[in-house]
Amino acid sequence: MERTFAMIKPDGVRRGLTPEILARIQKKGYRVVGLKQMVISRQTAESHYGEHRERPFFGELVEFITGGPVVAIALEGEQVISGWRAMMGATNPANAAPGTIRADFATTTGENVTHGSDSPESAERELGLFFGNDELL
Ligand code: ATP
Ligand code: MG
């Protein structure tokens, strides 16, 4: 059984979307094995998004993701890494398929409501960054 790291970003939390997003996860059948609302430190944000360090939007991205509480979620399920990314939709909400979280709730690439690990390696790294083993079911 696969695990992934999901996050409701500050825009989603601020807009009260947490219950709706958790309901979609539950309906889909994924198991929530870890969950916490927290403010991300600059250090954690820079590590989490380290692959984007050289990109022009990196500063803005770190400001945004540390700018308010997020909800960090550990999910378990069959092919949950790709499945959760499919539920989120494309990075740019304008390209996101109808019915996806980003299509339904986001309008900009910068503030696109949710995050999902993009590979087994990212999932392991990101889960370790946000959760201790004793915090997960
Ligand atoms: P995430 O990693 O947050 O799940 P993603 O994997 O769909 O999103 P990435 O390419 O990893 O997309 O980009 C990480 C995040 O950086 C995006 O979700 C978005 O918030 C921000 N981002 C990406 N590209 C841009 C851009 N061109 N302008 C502004 N922000 C961007
Ligand atoms: Mg990504």
From TrEMBL:
Binding residues annotated for ATP, in chain numbering: 9, 57, 85, 91, 102, 112
Keyword field contains Protein biosynthesis: no
SMART domains membership: NDK
UniProt-listed Enzyme Commission number(s): 2.7.4.6
Alphabetized InterPro entries for the sequence: NDK-like_dom, NDK-like_dom_sf, Nucleoside_diP_kinase, Nucleoside_diP_kinase_AS
Cofactor: Mg(2+)
Any one annotated GO CC term: cytoplasm
Keywords: ATP-binding, Cytoplasm, Kinase, Magnesium, Metal-binding, Nucleotide metabolism, Nucleotide-binding, Phosphoprotein, Transferase
Gene Ontology BP terms: CTP biosynthetic process; GTP biosynthetic process; UTP biosynthetic process
Localization terms from the record: Cytoplasm
Source superkingdom: Bacteria
Domain Nucleoside diphosphate kinase-like intervals: 1-137
Annotated catalytic residues: 115
Any GO MF annotation of the entry: nucleoside diphosphate kinase activity
Reactions mediated catalytically: a ribonucleoside 5'-diphosphate + ATP = a ribonucleoside 5'-triphosphate + ADP; a 2'-deoxyribonucleoside 5'-diphosphate + ATP = a 2'-deoxyribonucleoside 5'-triphosphate + ADP
Function: Major role in the synthesis of nucleoside triphosphates other than ATP. The ATP gamma phosphate is transferred to the NDP beta phosphate via a ping-pong mechanism, using a phosphorylated active-site intermediate.
Similarity comment text for this entry: Belongs to the NDK family.
Subunit structure: Homotetramer.
UniProt-recorded name of the protein: Nucleoside diphosphate kinase
